[in-house]
Specification:
This is CBS domain-containing protein. Keywords: CBS domain. With about 140 residues, the protein is an alpha/beta fold. It has one domain: CBS-domain (Roll), CATH 3.10.580. Helix content is about 45%, strand content about 20%. Strand 2, helix 2 and strand 3 form a beta-alpha-beta unit. The protein is globular, with a radius of gyration of 15 Å. The chain starts with a helix and ends with a helix.
């Protein structure tokens, strides 16, 4: 069995819940990523923010990204998976909820992230093909 910790990338940085969207966007640019976990003052995962969230839920609505905080965009309970979970469970969770990035936790602390790229690099071609097809079908139906 392959565990999520075996394919995740570690060293994930969080944006603070009180950080502005401008700060989050700059940090994403510096790190070359399109999404970042939002961590609270309690050092726990509170959500994920994407570059698309910033554009669609802030800029497109005429809001100022220097005034809106990451916490204001964090909606609902974030999906995550334990570091000891089977990779198949992670893929199922990602497919069912149409998510392309899945935080990995250990002892309730963020330890990594699984992205589509991690899936592509670490799983057999047929598993990657199934995953991409499932995510694409769901996104096409919802779009």
């Amino acid at each position: 069995m392959t565990h999520t910790k075996d394919i995740m990338h570690s060293g994930v940085e969080c944006v603070g819940e009180h950080d502005t969207l401008q700060t989050a966007a700059r940090r994403m640019r510096e790190l070359g990523v399109g999404a970042m976990p939002i961590c609270g003052d309690d050092d726990r995962l509170h959500g994920i923010i994407t570059d698309r969230d910033i554009v669609v839920k802030c800029v497109a609505d005429g809001k100022d990204p220097t005034d809106v905080t990451a916490a204001e965009l964090a909606q609902g309970k974030p999906f995550y998976i334990d570091s000891e979970a089977d990779v198949r469970d992670a893929l199922t969770l990602m497919e069912e909820h149409q998510i392309r990035r899945l935080p990995v936790v250990e002892n309730h602390r963020l330890v990594g992230m699984i992205s589509e790229a991690d899936v592509a690099r670490n799983l057999p071609e047929n598993a990657v093909g199934h995953f991409v097809e499932a995510i694409s079908k769901q996104q096409a139906r919802s779009g």
